[in-house]
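Quick question: what would this complex look like in 3D?
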Amino acid sequence: MTTTVDARGFSCPQPVIMTRKAIQAGEFPIEVLVETVTSRENVRRASEKLGCQVEAEEMGDEFKLTITK
Amino acid sequence: MSEKITRFFASRWGIVLAGVAIGVLAPLLQKVGNPPNMGICVACFERDIAGALGLHRAAVVQYIRPEIIAFVLGATIAALLFREFKPRAGSVPIVRFVLGVFAMIGSLAFLGCPWRALLRLAGGDLNAILGLAGLVTGVTIGVQFLKAGYNLGRSYKTYPVVGWIMPVIMIGLLLLRIFRPQFSEGGPIFFSEKGPGSLYAPLLISLGAGLVIGFLAQRTRFCTMGSIRDVILMGDNHLISGIGALLVVAFITNLILGQVSFGFFGQPVAHSSHLWNFLGMVLAGLAFALAGGCPGRQLFLSGEGDGDAGVFVLGMIVGAGFAHNFALAGTPDSVANGTVGGISPYGMAAVILGLVVCLVIGFSMREK
């Protein structure tokens, strides 16, 4: 089942904290919604550090990151 | 292409490049006129702007610092070029204002923001060690709140004009700097005739250096508070590699320029009252951590459309008014009289009050 993390509007480190919680819960794939490139890069870096693969796609002026392990 | 550049700036090399740029430019700005160990200081320079506008009347620290203006505008240019200018606001602005006020009071007890703490250390001012220890302590306390669920809540997309308010304010300040109108007899705009406020680099050099730093810092998300927070919170040493680069390069540049003098007592625009150097920066570090960015980062965010970061900046400028009007700011050591400086009893009370306010905010703004 897909886990969705809606981190839109939160500034860092919140999106990273929320993503890490989801990764630790272990329900993959995880979809993370963020609004800024800063959050996208931070979530990507933190997820990769935890051994996950990250695909990012642009959706209008938001981003969706799909995290798998 | 744009995506490739973005990935470079987001890489380790990108953040190190930003640190190197600040490490070279700040000592050079000092060489060409800025105050000693204060090539760049976001808190001090915002304080000088507050003074120039007459929000405080400390005659030695009044000048409209072009670096602050250029930091914001450099970030705006970078954000526009890379399609990252996103007008957003509405995440507890009044809390951010209060945090900005106390961040400034804490910074001025120490006499510098985190950038200046690094630059002071790179110039041999060992009091900066106490300040940096305080900063790490304050951020560590902030991280405990983050771990316990503290957050500022969501911001929301808003009208483009909201994102333009801070850049336009900066353009207004630039016009005041260039034309320096006299609004009433004996009134503002004030520029110091002596003291640190009277020491400044030529306008175009200050603007140029500020634009470069603003651009790079927006691209790389350079943040002193974030660097410490990320190490403590997640063992992530990305941002702190930029801070390390700043410190090392600034020290080397200072050595080359002959701007290093080791010691505690009588360092320029600094006091050696150890406890209050430490506690001032504990307050500042905690306020930055709760607000999500150091003073520099808040400027860059305000340049890319973040109205809440703009409110924090305005809080800092108002805080500077309070700090000098109420005699809360640190007084430098006096070499002539051989006396150690420090802060007044009012300053001590304000730092303690600030810590209490920050703790209340940290404890109460949590998601259950």
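Answer marked as accepted. The CA atoms of residues 10 and 66 of chain A lie 18 Å apart.
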